[in-house]
């Protein structure tokens, strides 16, 4: 509101200037014409004839005053003219912008009119811009493909959600990768009054694949051309955005501009702010045809209903075919074709003020789009350099972008009061489950965590996986938080197979992780590691939710359920693949146990064989895992037998058993009621046993736990009596659930617990 009405304040200031400057000038001159209380004529001749005190100096002073008076009058004349122009530049006086001369609000012809356009654009909108209805849905279309673009979309959406006051409907033209990532993200984000629809970008490839394109966006950079055909026929208008856009204002302001379209105007665009289409960037530079400087398609307002009536599909196809005969390919993807169409049909375009698309590529005139950074509405990082682009105010732009990049997305789950939301079955079920909990229960927070929906961003980094031809592949599954990040490189060096990791991070920590990973040669050389971000919410570490997320998104038939603090032995990946075949894991319900050891040394010469490990055990360099604090957790592995074993051997389940196992991907999930420290793995192994999994110890496999500072959750467990009481209560409830589910066979778990 303040930004829109800034023009009104400028108008009032200018009006006051026109009224008061002449008055002050004449008072000054009139006062200066009295000497000793007597009036003095301003005429030099009259003064010379009647004033004995006339001197050459007083003559020069009066001449100077007369000159200043003429200057003030000239300034006032210019001010009146500018005010008259500003008053006449209301939306009702626009006649389009298809000529080479543009109104100040609409755009630019040169740098001076560009600067003037800011003032005129801002001032004319106050009180005249049609209001968007309070609960009117704003439609936004975005083309998104791949892992990196999916991350960019999140930042764009955050900036839109931060400022918005209206329901939003996002239309995402996405490939299979982006759809999987963004569908999960929005489903778990659960933002009120936001609807998401997906359109298969891969099905649209045939529509534009005939167009050669040199732009880094590839074939997806051409898909905005087919939106009239792709989006629902009943959809009349839509705002189309590139993924590298950041909003600095309410998107409803841009939606309101549709009301300014007149006649045959169907495209709202901002003038291109580089010299690209002028063809003077380098010798023999030959761009596609464009009207003047051309238009940038990072932000587009599309009147879909009118475009369809104009046969837009036929229009752009004929234009593209004709131009490609000489141009051979596009350089700027859809932007070249949009501009070629506009060149032939300038009446189609309504030129938006340039603050709706401040383009931060090198050598642009973006700095002429604003007098103050508060004038900005949309920032467009349309250079391949992105945040490293050159601009006088790039630090401000970068900080604004980083603000949304690291902004806690959970805070954007706010209701739009007074606007009815569509019925969400998942949300209703969640509210029902939460309402059934007793808030006076001392373990309420523990129980509530089970139903908390954590925002989840799958495949945060690029992921590639080629399935093994023999169908024996194994994925290492683990979860971690920021304080275990240093383990990633070591694990990647020890395990060459696919890895699925769930990381529990805040939005800011996710960006720290991204920078860490991108700066690591080891991590960047590995494309078969899936990093899935589960965003922080609540006071507990949701360890079993994290494990389930990592388990659910593996691409192999088998998985090794590990923890981030363990380093697998060198060659374990290949050894497990052979064991899968040897023990017929595909056709039997087995859980293959990898014996766990630990060291108290931060620097360890990692054993390269079982013989070397046994030697280190005897020397006291290594120990069986948790032998000194929690013997029961791994005692059934029977380490004494393992020392001499040469073939796999079977062991029986015992109370509190929690080995690390290799299982088929269809094994049961971890129980989410267990959060933080305690019983999270024990409960899972108990359920495997209840489902009659056979526990088999591998004789030539091992893993070693590396030392680290105690986690926050184990500290709470040790220091908080209520924490331990609630954990005991949850254990008892889990055992009761097991009895109800598995019947008589589950009674042994109650007996074993009582005897332990």
From TrEMBL:
<dbReference type="GO" id="GO:0042285">
    <property type="term" value="F:xylosyltransferase activity"/>
</dbReference>
<feature type="transmembrane region" description="Helical">
    <location>
        <begin position="12"/>
        <end position="31"/>
    </location>
</feature>
<keyword id="KW-0328">Glycosyltransferase</keyword>
<dbReference type="Pfam" id="PF01501">
    <property type="entry name" value="Glyco_transf_8"/>
</dbReference>
<comment type="similarity">
    <text>In the C-terminal section; belongs to the glycosyltransferase 49 family.</text>
</comment>
<protein>
    <submittedName>
        <fullName>LARG1 glucuronyltransferase</fullName>
    </submittedName>
</protein>
<keyword id="KW-0808">Transferase</keyword>
<dbReference type="GO" id="GO:0035269">
    <property type="term" value="P:protein O-linked glycosylation via mannose"/>
</dbReference>
<feature type="compositionally biased region" description="Basic and acidic residues">
    <location>
        <begin position="59"/>
        <end position="78"/>
    </location>
</feature>
<dbReference type="InterPro" id="IPR029044">
    <property type="entry name" value="Nucleotide-diphossugar_trans"/>
</dbReference>
<dbReference type="GO" id="GO:0000139">
    <property type="term" value="C:Golgi membrane"/>
</dbReference>
<keyword id="KW-0511">Multifunctional enzyme</keyword>
<keyword id="KW-0333">Golgi apparatus</keyword>
<keyword id="KW-0812">Transmembrane</keyword>
<dbReference type="Pfam" id="PF13896">
    <property type="entry name" value="Glyco_transf_49"/>
</dbReference>
<dbReference type="GO" id="GO:0015020">
    <property type="term" value="F:glucuronosyltransferase activity"/>
</dbReference>
<dbReference type="InterPro" id="IPR051292">
    <property type="entry name" value="Xyl/GlcA_transferase"/>
</dbReference>
<keyword id="KW-0325">Glycoprotein</keyword>
<keyword id="KW-1133">Transmembrane helix</keyword>
<comment type="pathway">
    <text>Protein modification; protein glycosylation.</text>
</comment>
<comment type="similarity">
    <text>In the N-terminal section; belongs to the glycosyltransferase 8 family.</text>
</comment>
<feature type="region of interest" description="Disordered">
    <location>
        <begin position="43"/>
        <end position="109"/>
    </location>
</feature>
<keyword id="KW-0472">Membrane</keyword>
<feature type="compositionally biased region" description="Polar residues">
    <location>
        <begin position="44"/>
        <end position="58"/>
    </location>
</feature>
<keyword id="KW-0735">Signal-anchor</keyword>
<dbReference type="InterPro" id="IPR002495">
    <property type="entry name" value="Glyco_trans_8"/>
</dbReference>
């Amino acid at each position: 509101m303040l930004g829109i009405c800034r023009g009104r304040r400028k108008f009032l200031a200018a009006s006051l200037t026109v009224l008061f400057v002449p008055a002050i000038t004449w008072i000054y001159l009139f006062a200066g014409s009295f000497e000793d209380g007597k009036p003095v004529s301003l005429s030099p001749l009259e003064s010379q004839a009647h004033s004995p005190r006339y001197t050459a100096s007083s003559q020069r002073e009066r001449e100077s005053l007369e000159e200043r008076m003429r200057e003030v009058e000239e300034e006032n004349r210019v001010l009146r003219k500018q005010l008259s122009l500003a008053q006449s530049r209301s939306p009702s006086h626009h006649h389009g912008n298809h000529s080479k001369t543009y109104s100040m609000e609409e755009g630019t012809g040169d740098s001076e009119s560009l600067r003037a356009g800011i003032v005129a654009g801002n001032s004319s909108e106050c009180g005249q811009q049609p209001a968007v209805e309070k609960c009117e849905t704003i439609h936004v279309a975005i083309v998104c493909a791949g892992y990196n673009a999916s991350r960019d979309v999140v930042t764009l959406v955050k900036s839109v959600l931060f400022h918005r006051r209206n329901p939003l409907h996002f239309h995402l033209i996405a490939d299979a990768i982006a759809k999987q990532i963004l569908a999960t993200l929005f489903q778990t984000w659960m933002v009120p009054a936001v609807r998401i629809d997906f359109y298969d970008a891969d099905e649209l490839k045939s529509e534009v694949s005939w167009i050669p394109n040199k732009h880094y966006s590839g074939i997806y950079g051409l898909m905005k051309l087919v939106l009239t055909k792709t989006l629902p026929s009943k959809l009349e208008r839509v705002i189309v955005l590139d993924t590298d856009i950041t909003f600095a204002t309410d998107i409803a302001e841009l939606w309101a501009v549709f009301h300014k379209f007149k006649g045959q105007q169907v495209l709202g665009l901002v003038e291109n702010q580089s010299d690209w289409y002028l063809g003077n960037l380098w010798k023999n530079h030959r761009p596609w045809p464009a009207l003047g400087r051309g238009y940038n398609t990072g932000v587009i307002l599309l009147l879909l209903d009118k475009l369809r009536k104009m046969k837009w599909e036929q229009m752009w196809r004929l234009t593209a075919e004709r131009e490609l005969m000489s141009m051979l390919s596009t350089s700027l993807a859809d932007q070249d074709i949009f501009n070629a169409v506009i060149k032939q049909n300038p009446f189609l375009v309504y030129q938006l003020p340039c603050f709706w698309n401040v383009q931060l590529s090198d050598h642009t005139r973006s700095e002429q789009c604003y007098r103050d950074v508060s004038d900005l509405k949309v920032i467009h990082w349309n250079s391949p350099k992105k945040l490293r682009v050159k601009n006088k105010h790039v630090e401000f732009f970068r900080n604004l972008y980083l603000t949304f990049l690291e902004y806690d997305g959970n805070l954007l789950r706010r209701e739009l009061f007074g606007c009815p939301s569509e019925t969400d079955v998942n949300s209703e079920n969640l509210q029902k489950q939460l309402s059934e909990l007793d808030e006076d229960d001392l373990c309420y927070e523990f129980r509530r965590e089970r139903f908390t929906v954590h925002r989840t961003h799958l495949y945060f980094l690029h992921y590639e996986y080629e399935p093994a031809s023999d169908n024996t592949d194994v994925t290492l599954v683990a979860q971690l938080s920021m304080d275990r990040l240093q383990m990633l490189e070591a694990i990647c060096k020890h395990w060459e197979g696919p890895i699925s990791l769930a990381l529990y991070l805040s939005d800011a920590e996710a960006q720290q992780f991204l920078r860490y990973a991108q700066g690591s040669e080891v991590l960047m050389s590995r494309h078969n590691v899936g990093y899935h971000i589960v965003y922080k919410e609540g006071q507990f570490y949701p360890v079993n939710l994290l494990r389930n997320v990592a388990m659910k998104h593996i691409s192999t038939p088998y998985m090794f359920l590990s923890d981030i603090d363990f380093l697998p032995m060198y060659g374990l990946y290949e050894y497990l693949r052979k064991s899968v075949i040897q023990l017929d894991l595909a056709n039997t319900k087995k859980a293959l146990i990898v014996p766990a050891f630990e060291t108290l040394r931060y620097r360890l010469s990692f054993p390269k064989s079982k013989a070397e490990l046994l030697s280190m055990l005897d020397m006291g360099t290594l120990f069986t895992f948790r032998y000194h604090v929690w013997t029961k957790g791994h005692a059934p592995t029977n380490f004494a037998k393992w020392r001499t074993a040469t073939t796999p051997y079977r062991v029986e389940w015992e109370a509190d058993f929690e080995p690390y196992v290799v299982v088929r991907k269809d094994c049961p999930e971890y129980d989410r009621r267990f959060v933080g420290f305690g019983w999270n793995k024990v409960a899972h192994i108990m359920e495997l046993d209840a489902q009659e999994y056979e526990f088999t110890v591998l004789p030539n496999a091992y893993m070693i736990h590396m030392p680290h500072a105690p986690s926050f959750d184990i500290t709470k467990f040790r220091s908080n009596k209520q924490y331990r009481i609630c954990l005991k209560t949850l254990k008892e409830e889990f055992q009761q659930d097991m009895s109800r589910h598995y019947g008589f066979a589950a009674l042994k778990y109650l007996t074993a617990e009582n005897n332990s």
